[in-house]
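Here's what a typical entry looks like (Leucine-rich repeat-containing N-terminal plant-type domain-containing protein):
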Amino acid sequence: MQSLRRLVLLSSLLLFLVLLSAPKSAWALEATILDPVDYLALQAIPKSLFDMPGGAFFQSWDFTSDPCAGFRGVQCSGGRVVALALGDPRAGSPGLYGRLPPALSALSALSSLSLVPGRVSGPIPPALPLLPSLRFLALSSNLLSGPLPRSFSPALRTLDLSSNRLSGPSPPPSSASPSSPPSANRFSGRVPGAVFTLPLASLRLQRNRFSGALRPDGPAPDGATVDLSYNRLTGRVPAELATAGTIYLNSNRFTGDVPAALVARVTAGAVRLLYLQHNYLTGFALAPNSSVPPGTSLCLHDNCMVPPAAAATSCPVRAGRRKTRPPAECAGNTSSYQR
């Protein structure tokens, strides 16, 4: 037993001396061993995404070195990839082109994924928004197309898919009539109602191709930013959006009166910004003795309100000076809305 203890002690001392004399790079290598699944996922990225002419983002992605130490846009923790910022974020830098690789969905520890403006096209991998740790997903100002994913991670707090070519999801098979022609089974273009019930601080879907009526599955997160501007949305403004704090619905085809719940939240100061310009809305009814508080931005220009709503407090310059639409533009639009 005594000799065994001496052997163990001697072995431990020998191992300590070997490690002590090892180069510092060996210590660093030992400390940053990347999960094999994450390593393979990173390898798939430059096979599917490429630098635009004049770009050099992927120049540092040399897989003979440690991805966690030298790859631009890659952040690791505990041997896992936790953040990806794809593309050079500096002003004037060219972006990327290609498609988002499905292998991104294998990065199970990823909490943040951003993509600089560029020409990345094709669909969003359906499993990508379901990553369990994903809190920040920003893929704006590219050429992404196809349906918005039906499901998202409950951890998600920021979703920015603005300025793409996304449409709504296809309807479930049970909703399509067997006698419908093939064209009736295309994507409806509607925003999935479930996206409004996610615990998001920011939902940005502006400048896409969403159409049809908004039908949220429940109230928007309290105080959230919701931007659905510059789409093709129709019907009534849903009262479920009244719980948000900053709301952009301008440049759509909304009709009818602004819901009383939303008006009440504006006059209470709970909605800090409400942009409704360039729609076909017919009313914004303030309660007696109520007004829009100072510091709240409300724009109602270029709607079908007669007379024009006097409650508007501030509009951006790009909203223009026209306070109401001519009757000819409102005829046939204010009454033909989808419930």
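Residues 2-21 form the longest helix (20 residues).

More examples are in the samples folder.
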